[in-house]
Specification:
The protein is built from two helices and five strands, in the order H-E-E-E-H-E-E. It has 112 residues and is α+β, with helices and mostly antiparallel strands. Strands 1-2-3-5-4 form a five-stranded antiparallel beta sheet, covered by helices on one side. The longest helix has 17 residues. The radius of gyration is 13 Å and the shape is globular. The protein starts with a helix and ends in a 9-residue tail after the last strand. The structure holds adenosine monophosphate and zinc ion.
């Protein structure tokens, strides 16, 4: 499958790893929009949050267990924002579910 995040998980495309376990992989965004900008992806190809269902929701659960560990590891003590762009209107560019962990400065209140 021609999916850039599947290739990153497989190690075929290099990435700056932040965290990894059986269910998910986290790496620094190549074009950071905040001082800390990490992406967490499931190790199964799920196209977006709209593709989460009863069969694969363990990946979402495990990602949300990993996020506090990742945030603590990179020192996001003041808080952070979790974003998942889902579909065209949200400007999702990579069609493999991912959660942006963004922080390292005070973020704007406006969410869109
Ligand atoms: P989205 O627009 O929500 O689909 O986010 C996709 C994100 O993936 C963007 O923030 C990109 O900067 C990021 N991205 C794309 N290619 C890479 C890559 N090879 N390594 C790290 N981040 C990437
Ligand atoms: Zn994929």
């Amino acid at each position: 499958m021609d999916c850039i995040f599947c290739k990153i998980i497989a190690g075929d495309i290099p990435s700056k790893k932040a965290y990894e376990d059986e269910f998910c992989y986290a790496f620094h965004d190549i074009n950071p929009q905040t001082p800390v900008h990490i992406l967490v992806v499931p190790k199964a190809h799920i196209a977006s949050a709209d593709g989460i269902n009863a069969e694969n929701s363990v990946y979402a659960a495990k990602i949300f267990e990993a996020i506090p560990k990742i945030a603590a590891e990179v020192g996001l003590n003041g808080g952070y924002r979790i974003i998942s762009n889902c579909g065209e209107d949200a400007c999702q560019t990579v069609k493999h579910l991912h959660f942006h962990i963004m922080g390292g400065r005070r973020l704007p209140e406006n969410m869109g």
